[in-house]
Amino acid sequence: MSGNKRWLLPLLFGGLISVLFFVWALKGVQWKGVVESWTHIQWGWASLAAGTYLIGMWLRGIRCAWILRPYREISSSHGTQLVLIGYAANNILPARLGELVRSYALTHREKVNYGISLSTLLMERILDGLAIVGILWISGSFVSRQPWIDEIGWVAGGIFVGALVVVLLARLGSNMFKALLAWGSGLLPEGLGGKVESFGLRLLEGTACLRWDIRLPGILLMSVLIWVVEGAMFAIMLKAFGWPMSWLAAYLAMSITNLGVLVPSSPGHLGTFHAFCAKVLLLVGVVASRSDALGYAAAVHLLQLVPVTLLGLWAMNHYGLSLSSIWKLKDNEPSSNESSEEASPSNDSTSESLSTSHKKTAYS
């Protein structure tokens, strides 16, 4: 099956999911009411909300740089560009290819092994998930009990806690993990088995950021701060519409929406974002109608989507990437061995002292 046909099915499936969620979100909505809600937007507050969201991107870039320190020392600005590239690609390409694009950009520019790039990204997603679930449980405890919110919280919490437990067990029992990996790879054809084992070892190396040292508390606190800032963006947008700035509604909407967009959908989370965000606002009672709720959700979505996508495209160009080269990535992913000698710590002590040559080439 050709590359384009291989990705056609996820694209069509995601599009169908988006349509279904849009149908759900549009139930009982009057377009006149949506347009009218937009006429009341105070663009000064909306601009502040967009700026707040971009601050969250910058904080993600700082965390990205901290997590990568055991392998390559990069500046927070370059970390932010990597984050923007991933988000922009997710907004344009299907099947969350942005995650692969960001890892490819890191490998392409900073010469970090591709497997390690994916592994550190996985660490970020686990920490993000745990922070969001924590905010959901805290904010959800102040509203009337809703079974569907409880289900989202329990399912998402189980997934992210389970993923963290697996990662910690693999790290603490690295020798056993390597033995199991070697045994499992031996059951595969020789060429494939070698690639699987090499990739698995790189993924294990990517957990070095979880080693207990002075950086780990900062990484954990930054993961919480990122989502506190994004919740503030939701709160500011309530003010932009002239409604009370309900922090409870903002953080509940932020957490439910970000967990909801994990459902496969079209690029940019069309439909899923709007449906979950609007439903939470109606639940909390901040808005008076479905039309107002959808208008708010659409405005928040656009303020997140447009600036980040434009900045991400600029970052791609800065990294020497193009949309055409990125699209080809779906067929030709970097090898798990790529750059393995240049940025792969052989053990934890490597993370304590980067080589002098690496420091000389680090970005200020």
Concise structural overview:
Helices cover 73% and strands 0% of the residues. The chain has 15 helices and no strands. The protein has helices at 3-26, 31-39, 43-68, 76-92, 98-110, 114-140, 147-172, 174-186, 190-205, 215-240, 247-260, 272-284, 290-318, 323-328, 356-361.
What does this structure look like?
This protein is mostly helical and 364 residues long. The protein has one domain. Helices cover 73% and strands 0% of the residues. The protein is built from 15 helices and no strands. It has helices at 3-26, 31-39, 43-68, 76-92, 98-110, 114-140, 147-172, 174-186, 190-205, 215-240, 247-260, 272-284, 290-318, 323-328, 356-361. The longest helix is centred in the last third of the chain and has 29 residues, at 290-318. The protein is globular. Mean pLDDT is 85; it is low at 338-342 and 346-364.
- Can you give the mean pLDDT? 85
Rg calc? 21 Å
Q: Kindly, what is the distance between the CA atoms of the first and last residues, rounded to a whole number of angstroms? A: 45 Å
Largest sheet: none
Total beta strands: 0
Q: Give the overall shape.
A: globular
Number of domains: 1
Structure classification: mainly alpha
N-to-C series of helices and strands = HHHHHHHHHHHHHHH
